[in-house]
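User: Please run a holo structure prediction.
Assistant: Happy to. Please share the sequence and the ligand.
User: Here you go; the ligand is FE2/S2 (inorganic) cluster.
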Amino acid sequence: MTEQRTWKVTFLPINRTVEIREGDSVLDAAVKGAIPLEHACGGVCACSTCHVIVKEGFADLEPASDKEEDMLDNAPCLTTTSRLGCQIEVTRDLVVEIPPMTRNQVSEEH
Ligand code: FES
């Protein structure tokens, strides 16, 4: 049995790092670490509330699918390194920022 690799996902601006298994998503890391990243559709690429801005590691990610690109178009604070957290399969250490509008949505709901 080969040992499964683990990677670190760091969430800004709260600067918390969560370790997860290879192939888990950024959303999986957020849930595991109790990071306040919204995920209204439950992680099936049907909303844009899990929007994150990738600060480190963007170039090494699998490209976004057309569906993810479509969903991202609805996300506030869109940048050239924006992705949906539930669609990022983690295959290296990453640093992601939870954008201000997403954070606002979270705080409005609580
Ligand atoms: S949780 Fe809905 S698209 Fe990621």
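The radius of gyration is 13 Å.
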